[in-house]
Design goal:
Largest sheet: 5 strands, mixed
Strand content: 5-15%
CATH class of the largest domain: Mainly Alpha
Bound molecules: FE2/S2 (inorganic) cluster
Number of strands: 5
Radius of gyration: 17 Å
Strand order of the largest sheet: 2-1-5-3-4
CATH architecture of the largest domain: Orthogonal Bundle
Number of domains: 2
């Protein structure tokens, strides 16, 4: 039986070697180098991709063969028909990056995070964990995106872009938040 996975809408054959990580499969087998290898041990978020359109995972900690029959979206799959994803546009407008190395992971993570909020998945800073409706706040964004590190420190722009894209009001962070 053929083992396949759908990557950015295209069905591809999985590697014969079950030890290949999803990250290496994307980058080294499919030459989709948008997904970045920062730490290769689950600590930086640079390798974040989406499963079945909205669940974010760290592809460095996943084996490609685990995703047989599933749909994976990497940063290359966010833009549609040549137009940037609105979140990508928001990152440009809010200076949400500097070197750009963390950006693909930040983008995929933010798409997954918004889906988690819509599903009512609480975070550490959610006051009422029994609620179905979680307010989209700066604190929620900062907490939920805390697994995506940015060595350039573009956090203010990232939070502003993610907040505005999800219908919130971007605001300047306080000196204490910047520390
Ligand atoms: S490369 Fe996967 S978390 Fe850093
Ligand atoms: S923009 Fe350089 S690491 Fe985030």
């Amino acid at each position: 039986m053929q083992s396949t996975v759908t990557i950015n809408g295209a069905e591809v054959e999985l590697p014969g070697d079950p030890r290949v990580s999803l990250l290496d499969f994307l980058r080294e087998h499919l030459y989709l180098s948008g997904t970045k290898k920062g730490c290769d041990q689950g600590a930086c978020g640079a390798c974040t991709v989406l499963v079945d359109g909205e669940r974010r995972i760290l592809s460095c900690l996943a084996l490609a063969v685990q995703y047989q029959g599933r749909k994976i979206t990497s940063v290359e799959g966010l833009a549609q028909e040549g137009a940037l994803h609105p979140l990508q546009q928001a990152f440009i407008e809010h200076d949400g990056f500097q070197c750009g190395y963390c950006t693909p992971g930040q983008l995929c993570s933010a798409v997954g995070m918004a889906a988690e909020l819509r599903r009512g998945v609480p975070s550490y800073v959610t006051d009422d964990i029994g609620t179905d409706t979680i307010e989209f706040s700066h604190d929620e964004v900062r907490e939920r995106m805390s697994g995506n590190l940015c060595r350039c420190g573009a956090y203010n722009g990232i939070v502003a872009a993610v907040t505005e894209h999800n219908g919130g009001q971007p605001r300047r962070s306080t000196a204490q938040e910047d520390a």
